[in-house]
Every structure is written in C-alpha cells, then in structure tokens.
Design a protein that fits this description.
- This protein is α+β, with helices and mostly antiparallel strands and 478 residues long.
- The chain is built from 15 helices and 16 strands.
- Strand 12, helix 3 and strand 13 form a beta-alpha-beta unit.
- The radius of gyration is 30 Å and the shape is elongated.
- The termini are far apart.
- The structure holds zinc ion.
C-alpha cells in the first residue's frame, strides 16, 4: 500500500460464552442440535414472556473485564436495540448501550517493530445472540432459533490498531485470554469467537479519521488479515483516483479474497435504543468483583514471564508452552515432578508435541501424563536408559499407556553400563574390521564414528554412549 496513508483499525469481537444455559432463559445452548429444539417462550420472543438474567453471564463478563484491565461498572443497564430481521422474533435485541458492564480497558500487544504497544478497550457489554436463517438452494429459507438468546460478550477496541498484523496480534491475545478464562471455547469455525473490523485510512499527518468500512463475516485469523489488507488497498486506490470512501458494511468473500458492499452502515440512533423495561438495572457489588478477581487464573502474559524468569527457558519456548492453557498446565506439572525445566520443555515441545500432531490430538488427550513423562526423565537422569533409547520407551508408553519402568523391564531396554560387556562387543567389532582399524591408526580419525555406530548397533542401542567412547579410544589406540 501507498505509504502516504496511515491505516486505522478498530475491532468488535463477539465471544459466545460457555454457560450451560442462555442469557435470559433456562434453555440449553449446545451447538449442532435439531433446529428449534432448544427454545422456549422467552427465546422464541412470544408476547408476555419475561427475561431473567443468567448470573453466570455477569460473572463471565466481570472475569473478562478484569483480565483486560477494565473498570467494572457498579451499575449497568440492559437496552433494547430495535431492528427487524426474520431471525429476531422480538423485533429487538437485548444489549447494553449507554452503561455497559466494563469500560476503559487495555491490552499490550507485541508489534513487528518489537516492544509492547497498548491497545485500548473501549467497552465490553453483554447481549443476546440472534437466531440463524437456513437458506435452501431453491426459493425458501427457514429459521432456527436455537442460537437466539445465547449469551455474547461484545468486546470493542479503540481505533488504536495500525496494521493487519497488529489487529491479528491483538485478536490472538484476546482469544488466548477468553479461552484461558474458560468463558469461551474459542472455536472460530462454529462462530464462538467472531470479529468485525472497522477499517479506514487517512493521509499521514492528518488528525481526523477517514471514513470507515465495517468488514463482517470474518471467521479465521487468516481471513481477517486478508480482508483488512484487501480493504486497505481498495480504499487507497479509491482515494488515489480522487474518489471517496463510503461508510458501509462490507462482506468478506473468502473464495475471491475480496470484500463487497452489503449495506449502508447504520448509526446507533437508527436502532432507537432505550432501557429494557423488563430488566432492572444490574448492580454489581465490589465484594463480588473482588471475589472474581481472587479466583482469576494466571493469565497467559504473566505465565509466559514466569516461565522465563523461574524456569530459565528461552522466551520462544515459553511462548509455545503458554499458547494454550492446558499445554502450560501439562508443562508446569512435569517441571514440578521432575525438576529440570529445560529437559521438560525439550520433551514437551519435541516428542510429546510430535506425537500429538501425528494423531491430531490435544494435550489433554495425551496418553502419556506429566507423571509418566517425569518418571521416564528420571530414568535418563539415573543412567537406566540413554536419551536415545528414551524415545523408544516414550513411543511404547504412548502406545501401551504403561509406566516407563514397566516398559524398560518388559522390553529389556536397560542401558548397558557394565564395561566388561561393552568391552567384549568392542573386541568383536575390532576383530571383524581390521581394515578400518589400520585406517584409524593411520590418522583417519573420521573412522571413529564408524566404530561407535557399529558398537551401538551390536548392543541394540543400549550401550552407554560415554562408556563406548572412552573404551573405544583406549582399544583403538592399540
Ligand atoms: Zn429459551
């Protein structure tokens, strides 16, 4: 893009909460159920049905607000956002408008240039989701209201993001936080974590924002990046040609990699917001906020710093290990049981991750538990097995679910440290390869590796490598 322009991005993220029931009724909200099987008079929008606020939704909002450095409002209001659409039987969506539950938050992101950048979070509010229209290929459409009235948190950022990469860094961090907190399952494909992006550009040095377009339908990090980049180029070309950007909502089409106009962008006043007379103002006592604060888990950024500081592992390793909470828990437990943080990170990031990836499993599905891995690492430390044989032991533990000690005994994988046994193998190898012995003695030192290989092979990998090296040197010297 033309560097004469500066990019300005603000993001609105909708996170669907993991509560068992909907926000204003007791209906279940499991994904993929038979259409309209999870409904009642409240979420069907039948006249006279009254909403009752789900306490867990409020607690999840407080938790998310605290984790993103927001101020939690002691008093907030639910409002009706009025519009017509067939998936919204009431004719309005219950949301929060003037007084949301969380405001004035921020997150630090790592930028390309390096170093942290503070991204403001304007507000987080609670609202209900709408239903879903199902379009069959022909002429008809049906409506499924299972999703109607499911709880959402809308997390609105300040227009502080200056590139698609910054937008992705912010989103990834936010995604990581809500999943760590357990308030959202983070599934982008199923729409549990959805993002709308407000994108505009302005000539560098200009204070006033340019006209923005709102991009919708962004359900993967890759698409979000592509959509923003396409949109920035489109707007720059428009301005270069002397045109103007129109304020509108645009849909991203993943197949063509382009955005197209969907409708003119509405302003807040188009919705005729007013306080919902069926719901009293929500009052949150400071004691509740304090209790939730006490119960917050260690957040990813803090955990990353602790891994670097306490365990002394490289920053990159700490990033990989804290990317997912369950992975970080697994690693923490390994270190607690075994003690050597570096050995644990090598194995968790190496063999454990490889085995999981090969089978497309998550860390919680690993048949090798932290205790089993720590047990095996202990057998390397005390010399029972070599680091090389440990990989065989690990694979067998994975397949059979047996402890390292059992596998080592059953398969006879104990390392041979008995020098007498190793010596007799070496003698045989030397006797069978006199030609190479001459070469070695003639100064061709590379042949040494050949002998190490032969001895290890003859011992089926069980000879202690240090002992093999030492004894070979002695014997070959003649
Ligand atoms: Zn219901």
């Amino acid at each position: 893009m033309d560097s004469r322009y500066e990019v300005v991005i603000g993001l609105e993220v909708h996170t669907q909460l993991t509560t068992k029931t909907k926000i204003f009724c007791g209906c279940a909200k499991d994904f993929g159920q038979r259409p309209n099987s999870q409904t009642c008079p409240v979420c069907l929008g039948l006249p006279g049905a009254l909403p009752v606020l789900n306490q867990q939704v409020v607690e999840d909002a407080i938790r998310t607000g605290l984790a993103t450095n927001c101020r939690i409002a002691p008093r907030s209001i639910f409002a009706r956002k009025n519009y017509f659409y067939p998936d919204l039987p009431k004719g309005y969506q219950i949301s929060q408008f003037e007084l949301p539950i969380c405001e004035h938050g921020w997150l630090n992101i790592e930028t390309e240039a390096g170093g942290p950048k503070k991204i403001g979070i304007t507000r987080i509010h609670m609202e209900e989701d709408a239903g879903k229209l199902l379009h069959s290929d022909g002429s008809s459409s049906s409506v499924d209201l299972n999703r109607a009235c499911t709880p959402l948190l809308e997390i609105v950022s300040e227009p502080d993001l200056r590139s698609a990469d910054e937008a992705i860094a912010y989103l990834r961090q936010l995604h990581q936080i809500v999943v760590y907190l357990g308030v959202c399952d983070g599934n982008l494909e199923e729409g549990s974590f959805r993002c709308d992006a407000n994108v505009s550009i302005r000539p560098r040095g200009q204070e006033a924002f340019g006209t923005r377009a709102e991009l919708k339908n962004l359900n993967s990090f890759r698409f979000i990046k592509q959509a923003i980049e396409y949109e920035v180029t489109r707007q720059a070309e428009l301005l270069d040609d002397g045109g103007t950007v129109v304020q509108e909502t645009r849909l991203y089409d993943a197949d063509s990699g382009t955005t197209r106009s969907m409708r003119g962008k509405e302003e807040a006043h188009d919705y005729r917001y007013f306080p919902d007379p069926d719901l009293v103002p929500l009052v949150v006592y400071p004691e509740w906020v304090e209790k939730v604060r006490q119960e917050l888990p260690e957040l990813p950024a803090a955990r990353l710093e602790r891994f670097v500081r306490e365990y002394g592992i490289p920053r990159y390793d700490a990033e990989v290990l804290t990317a997912e909470r369950a992975m970080a828990d697994y690693y923490d437990e390994c270190v607690r049981l075994h003690g050597n943080a570096k050995a644990c990170s090598n194995w968790v990031m190496g063999e454990v991750t490889r085995a999981l990836n090969e089978r497309s499993l998550g860390i919680t599905q690993s048949p090798v538990t932290p205790a089993m891995l720590a047990g095996m690492l202990g057998r390397i430390d005390d010399g029972t097995i070599s680091g090389k044989i440990a990989k065989t032991v690990f694979d067998e533990m994975w397949k059979s679910g047996k402890e390292a000690d059992v596998v080592i005994e059953e398969q006879g994988l104990r390392q041979v440290t008995d020098t007498g046994a190793i010596e007799s193998i070496i003698d045989e190898i030397i006797a069978a390869n006199m030609g190479q012995v001459e070469e070695y003695r003639g100064g061709k030192e590379k042949v040494f590796g050949f002998f190490v290989g032969q001895v290890m092979k003859a011992s089926k990998g069980k000879a202690n490598p240090a002992a093999v090296n030492e004894l070979l040197k002695k014997k070959l010297a003649g």
